Amino acid sequence: MTRTIGVALLGLGNVGGGVVKLLEDNAAAIAARLGARFEVRAIAVREVDKAKRVVDVDRRLLTSDVDAAVRRDDIDIVCELIGGTTLARHAMLAAIAAGKHVVTANKALLAEHGAEVFGAAERAGVDVYYEAAVCGGVPVIRVLREGLASDRVESLHGIVNGTSNYILTEMARTRRPFADILRDAQALGYAEADPTLDISGGDAAHKLAILVNLCFSTTIDVAAIPTEGIDIVEPIDLDYADKWDYVIKPLVIARAHGDPATGPIEARVHPALIPASWLLADVGGAKNALYVQSYALGPSLYYGAGAGMLPTAMSVVSDMIEIGRNIFARVAGAPRPTRPRPVQPRAAMALGELRTRYYLRFGVHDQPGVLGRLMTILGAHHISIAQVVQDGRATGDEPVWVVVVTHEALESDVRAALSEIDTLDVVRQPARLIRISGEVSPA
Ligand code: HSE
């Protein structure tokens, strides 16, 4: 007789619908791999009577009572696919308290309340898996937790938000307006319910906090991660990037400094100019990638669909299979944490201490001597210039653009120089700054 694992789905949006579809479409393969089948026995939704859903389901499975759904005796695994940190947190803690294993795609919840969730799971003796929380369908959590378990990560560069990568890729390709491209991303199911989280870098910061935890065995306050969204990028920046053989990508970056076990951690989220010849420059559309530099393996790259219905659902269902295997091997909930333990507090490196290269754009009056004044101030703050261009002639009140690429400089010096420049009478617009990151891949 085939064994059965009872599942409750919390949420039947894009990802929940994908889970239902994948469990049906791949039922035979899943049963062959697990030696059991999953049975969805309850689906908690906000509106039971909603007319149109992403997938057709037996309406008798639907309930608006989340607490009742997670407590049912015939449920082994609860999939939390609601999103947000209020109801989702309540539901997840209720599921854990009821002794259910949990699969979640909720990066915000794990980034902000991870200690509470994993602490509760450990006390209750249940598993919490979260592959879908970072890079959608790309199994980076498994890579960092298992594949590189014996290695030591030195740095990582990631494109972990599909929506912002899609928007920047399309803006660079077509120069269509930002709002139109965002609408397409929403229609394709990439964007969060509130897309400002994608655009502002907030979603990427949540994912980076989870990655930092896995790579450097430390927790990081997500609110303290320096975060800039893709809205700092204007079409003219894409033009200059293109002209100088760069591509602008929405990056997350983390690096360990000093002592490998205890030194400070640099973590930041921002769009960056990267060399067009670097591997990450080819990660276009809604694709995600993680470029990891580790002590033993060296550089490695993980690439694929970071958002969307079936890719994300695939990670959720793979986690369910893993929990199913744990249940049958009688090791479910055993001391085998899905995140590092003990979690050591490590200092966060202040952004002012960062040394990197910068792309700076100044909107100034077109008059003699302006370029010289800008360069003098940059020089006085120890900022060495690699390239500078002033294009065209301004008419009337229009600014003329002076665009600079620096050699490596200290962020606090750059900030001080920009503050001084912004007070000049010849400046028409506050200076724009985009950091330059990345490596040129070996041929
Ligand atoms: N809104 C997210 C993205 C979905 O665009 O990457 C996956 O977390």
Which characteristics define this entry?
alpha/beta; 14 helices; Rossmann fold; Alpha-Beta Plaits; six-stranded parallel beta sheet; 3 domains; binds L-homoserine
Structural commentary:
- This protein is an alpha/beta fold.
- The chain has helices at 14-25, 27-34, 66-71, 87-97, 107-124, 140-147, 162-174, 178-187, 196-199, 202-216, 235-243, 309-328, 370-380, 411-422; strands spanning 3-10, 36-44, 62-63, 77-80, 101-104, 128-129, 153-159, 246-256, 265-275, 287-294, 298-305, 355-364, 385-390, 400-406, 409-410, 427-436.
- The chain is 35% helix and 25% strand.
- Strands 7, 8, 9, 10, 11, 12, 13, 14, 15 and 16 form a ten-stranded mixed beta sheet that branches. Strands 3-2-1-4-5-6 form a six-stranded parallel beta sheet, sandwiched between helices.
- Helix 7 packs across helix 8.
- The protein is elongated, with a radius of gyration of 24 Å.
- The model has no long low-confidence stretch (mean pLDDT 93).
- The structure holds L-homoserine.
- Residues 136, 161-163, 190-192, 198, 203, 306-307 line the site of L-homoserine.
Secondary structure blueprint with pairings:
Blueprint lengths: L2 E8 L3 H12 L1 H8 L1 E9 L17 E2 L2 H6 L5 E4 L6 H11 L3 E4 L2 H18 L3 E2 L10 H8 L5 E7 L2 H13 L3 H10 L8 H4 L2 H15 L18 H9 L2 E11 L8 E11 L11 E8 L3 E8 L3 H20 L26 E10 L5 H11 L4 E6 L9 E7 L2 E2 H12 L4 E10 L7
Parallel strand pairs: 1-2, 1-4, 2-3, 4-5, 5-6, 9-16
Antiparallel strand pairs: 7-8, 7-10, 8-9, 10-11, 12-14, 12-15, 12-16, 13-14
